[in-house]
Amino acid sequence: MSKRSSWALPYFIFLVLFVVMPLVLILFYALQDSSGHFTLSNITKFFTDKDALSTFALSIEVALENTVLCILIGYPTAYILADKSLNRSAVTVVLFILPMWVNALMRTLATAELFTMAGITLGKGTLLFGMCYDYLPFMIYPIYNVLAKMDKSYAEAAQDLGARPWQVFAKVTLPLSMPGVISGVMMVFMPTVSTFAISEFLTNNKIKLFGTIIQENINNSMWNYGAALALIMLVIIGITTFFQKDDGSEAAGGAL
Predict the structure, then answer these.
(1) Of the candidates 148, 177, 168, 167, the residue with the CA atom closest to the CA atom of residue 71
(2) How far is residue 190's CA from residue 236's CA, in Å, rounded to a whole number?
(3) Portion of the chain with pLDDT greater than 70, in percent
(4) Has residue 201 been placed in a domain?
(5) DSSP of 122-152, one letter per residue?
(6) Considering the domain boundaries, does residue 73 fall inside one?
(7) pTM for the complete prediction?
(8) Torsion on CA atoms 129, 132, 137, 139, rounded to nearest 10
(9) Can you tell me the mean pLDDT for 207-211?
């Protein structure tokens, strides 16, 4: 234990047990049939399963709508929080963290109960409200961190050259903040696609998202097809994460 590298052993064990092993099991079940033989039918079945495809398309639609809502609300909020002339108290930032201290499932149940007490019919509107409420902090904080650390000299130089406030924002602030926006989009979009608990509680199972059909297949002991759906979702997440890194670096480089 005298070596510094020895302190990494607990983290290595944790990664193997709770990250690597689950991924290996997903791949193992996805490429097998119920008899244990190798097959690709579980993956190809997704592309011929109309219910799965329609659910996936609906999940993408809901995720896009939720992401747009979070951007429209989150960017102005992050801008105000990062502007010292508009927000002089660090307490305001902490107030946006407080809801995240409560379990997401409990927040969702409380939101659903509020809608029920108010007599509001559960549906897509309540689903978007609940998702925006749950994921909004994940949009605010990446943008806030970028804006708070942004070199103010760029905006000042633009103002000295005669740029109007909206021009400073459009040509300096917004391009420089794009890495934060892209990170926020990824942190909101992908969890929205794969979630199932929020859609169940806030729509009474009227709307099923991609995570729901994965859960249903696993609960019905259809491990192989459920694992294949989870593998497809992991591949999509991996591809989008790859493009996120490229887009983030280009945005930052282009702005500078």
Answers:
(1) 177
(2) 9
(3) 93
(4) yes
(5) PSHHHHHHHHHHHHHHHHHHHHHHHHHHS-H
(6) yes
(7) 0.84
(8) -160
(9) 90
State the pLDDT at residue 1: 52
* 43: in domain: no
At 69, which amino acid appears?
L
For residue 4, what are its two tokens? 């510094």
| Structural domain includes residue 135 | yes
Exposure string over 148-177, b if 16+ CB within 10 A, otherwise e = eebeeebbeebeeeebeeeebbeebbebbb
Domain coverage including residue 192: 50-255
In terms of Cβ atoms closer than 10 Å to its own Cβ (0-12, 13-18, 19+), residue 211 is buried
Identity of the residue numbered 18:
F
Say whether pLDDT at 202 is over 50: yes
User: Domain with 156 in it: what CATH number?
Assistant: 1.10.3720.10
Give pLDDT tens digits for 133-174: 999 999 999 999 999 999 888 888 988 888 888 999 999 999
